[in-house]
User: Which sequence fits this backbone?
């Protein structure tokens, strides 16, 4: 049996050395292991699922007698994340809609829409331009959205509110026929040593 | 057995000390090379630390970003600045870093910068996006810069208003994105903070010069931190377009003054509390270890053949040594790490320049109104778009061709190695350009193709 002093020294060395090794593990998709105030993968997945379910449940979709064609338009970024990837979010929503909609909804490829818009921003298109593009590509609706965030900070504390909103616009009338959003608020605080 | 335990402790102490000797960032020569305009050398010294995950990760990447931007390599600059920004904004810190930083060297913590450094990181990211005409991303970065200014512990309300320059650029982004109402709000904030007008124009001029502040320890046991400004001697700049004066530029922001605002009242109180706490912990560590070792030595009833006097003396020596070591581990000195490649003076404004390629010269002046010729910058065949262009000017040297101080002409003229351009200081720049057409390096709407890569 080792003397107490030796055990204490060995335990101390073990504690120091254990901080030198890294760890890696597989985690569930909806678990946020690294918590922070930015939008996480779990947020994007939750938002996608909510929007897809909401759109498929919209009474206009349920009443369809033939498959409707949806065209993707880019999503406006009004968050404070300059690397916000809206395409990934929209394509995830598209994938889920196709899964839930039971062939009632189809999509036109995003690049096709972009070519038809000829480099113009969605906001710059008027009602007539939207109608022409819709007719040319056989699009019944355009799906677009806006990501917004607002941050309150004070003395090392931070509260960030996010709102991801999506809307379905009738290509012929430019009316918004469906709209829904995903909201989340996050809180973070720097340790005292970093304030 | 006691001798072995002592050897273990000595070995651990040596290992702990040596662990602090690993290089955590670029050597000082990188900074010297940067200020000397040798960006290639600065990059070669700084790049190896880009992906070193140590407590200076963010600082190393900020430095690398500054070097890339100084060299005109705006594409590669985004990546290290983004990495640095992510780390600085992260509220979590590893418990080990937090523990050691609390009781020992404050710079054991992961570097996350002061609020003004976080602001500048996002500010530069915004500039890079704006130059690429990605107004959404630029807006996101500039808004983040406004938010980061509120991380201060200062109770001075002026310290949380955000930099006026950033408000101006936020407004410009909203304007480009077709949201004039929100743009007007931020233009209004800029105007009220700077007491100046916002003029229309197709060119947004973003300028910076001087040397950013440094940090210095002060007070008992160096437990206080002071912001130390560095005077560049430059008080204003003039912009000449095709030889004609287009603007006089006075700085709207002094980073040193802004950083000093963040150390008011409440922040100072926290500094004092930190300093006093560390001194108390230090004293307790010393006393505690000394007592423990003396008790262990004095309570040992085994007689190993030494008399009591020698055993007590050995115990006192071991206890004192261990206590001194414990006391040394508790340090009160403040963390003086700082992004030292920042400028001090920032300015923003608008110019109206017809679309096309133009020669733009920027000249800097001291308090007496004399030009400081070694700071002059000239941009040749700068492409100006009708709708929107950013003219971003930062300290550095002429960006077209290499730059020499050699006085071949004997009259103080600054010559390019190409020998095809001559700038005469002391008067309006004589842009005697001999290139009949823009060089092949220039591409439409891509400014400043000169890089050291």
Assistant:
């Amino acid at each position: 049996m080792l003397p107490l002093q030796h055990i204490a020294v060995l335990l101390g060395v073990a504690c120091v050395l254990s901080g030198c090794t890294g760890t890696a593990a597989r985690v569930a998709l909806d678990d946020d292991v690294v918590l922070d105030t930015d939008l996480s993968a779990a947020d994007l997945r939750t938002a996608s699922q909510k929007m897809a379910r909401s759109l498929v449940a919209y009474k206009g979709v349920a009443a369809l007698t033939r498959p409707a064609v949806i065209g993707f338009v880019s999503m406006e970024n009004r968050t404070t994340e300059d690397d916000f990837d809206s395409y990934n979010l929209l394509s995830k929503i598209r994938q889920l809609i196709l899964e839930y909609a039971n062939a009632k909804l189809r999509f036109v490829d995003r690049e096709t829409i972009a070519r038809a818009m000829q480099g113009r921003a969605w906001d710059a298109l008027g009602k007539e331009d939207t109608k022409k593009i819709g007719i040319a590509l056989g699009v019944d609706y355009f799906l677009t959205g806006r990501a917004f965030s607002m941050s309150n900070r004070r003395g090392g504390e931070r509260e960030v509110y996010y709102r991801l909103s999506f809307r379905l616009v009738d290509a012929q009338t430019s009316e918004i026929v469906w709209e829904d959003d995903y909201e989340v608020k996050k809180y973070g605080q720097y340790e005292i040593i970093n304030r | 057995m006691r001798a072995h335990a002592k050897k273990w402790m000595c070995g651990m102490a040596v290992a702990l000390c040596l662990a602090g000797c690993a290089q955590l960032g670029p050597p000082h020569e990188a900074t010297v090379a940067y200020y000397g305009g040798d960006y290639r050398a600065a990059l070669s010294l700084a790049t190896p630390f880009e992906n070193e995950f140590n407590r200076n990760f963010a600082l190393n990447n900020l430095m690398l970003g500054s070097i890339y931007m100084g060299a005109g390599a705006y594409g590669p600059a985004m990546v290290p600045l983004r990495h640095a920004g992510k780390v600085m904004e992260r509220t979590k810190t590893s418990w080990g870093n937090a523990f050691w930083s609390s009781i020992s060297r404050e710079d054991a913590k992961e570097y996350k910068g002061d609020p003004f450094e976080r602001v500048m990181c996002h500010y530069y990211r915004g500039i890079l996006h704006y130059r690429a005409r990605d107004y959404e991303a630029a807006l996101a970065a500039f808004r983040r810069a406004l938010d980061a200014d509120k991380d201060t512990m200062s109770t001075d309300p002026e310290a949380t208003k955000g930099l006026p320059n950033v408000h101006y650029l936020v407004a410009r982004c909203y304007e480009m994105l077709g949201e004039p109402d929100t743009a007007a709000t931020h233009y209004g904030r800029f105007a009220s903070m700077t007491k100046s007008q916002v003029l229309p124009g197709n060119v947004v001029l973003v300028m910076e010069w001087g040397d950013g502040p440094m940090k210095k320890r002060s007070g008992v046991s160096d437990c206080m931190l002071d912001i130390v400004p560095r005077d560049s001697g430059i008080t204003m700049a003039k912009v000449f377009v095709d030889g004609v004066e287009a603007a006089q530029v006075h700085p709207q922001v002094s980073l040193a003054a802004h950083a000093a605002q963040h150390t008011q009242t409440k922040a100072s109180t926290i500094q004092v509390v930190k300093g006093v706490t560390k001194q108390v912990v230090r004293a307790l560590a010393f006393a505690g270890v000394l007592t423990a070792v003396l008790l262990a030595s004095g309570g040992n009833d085994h007689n190993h053949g030494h008399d009591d006097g020698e055993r007590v003396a050995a115990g006192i020596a071991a206890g004192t040594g261990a206590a001194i070591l414990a006391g040394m581990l508790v340090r009160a000195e403040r963390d003086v790490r700082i992004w030292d490649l920042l400028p001090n003076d920032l300015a923003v404004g608008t110019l109206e320049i017809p679309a096309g390629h133009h020669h733009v010269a920027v000249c800097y002046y001291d308090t007496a109104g004399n030009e400081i010729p070694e700071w002059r910058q000239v941009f040749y065949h700068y492409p100006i778009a009708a709708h929107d262009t950013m003219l971003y000017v930062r300290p550095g040297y002429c960006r077209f061709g290499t730059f020499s101080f050699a006085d071949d002409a004997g009259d103080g003229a600054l010559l390019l190695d190409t020998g095809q351009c001559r700038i005469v200081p002391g008067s309006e720049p004589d842009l005697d350009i001999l290139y009949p057409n823009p060089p092949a390096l220039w591409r439409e709407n891509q400014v400043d193709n000169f890089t050291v890569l």
Summary: The interface with chain A takes residues 1-2, 4-5, 8-9, 12, 16, 82, 89-93, 96, 98, 101-102, 106, 109, 112, 125-126, 129, 136-141, 143-144, 147-148, 150-153, 160, 178, 266, 270 of chain B (CB under 8 Å). Chain B has 13 helices and twelve strands.
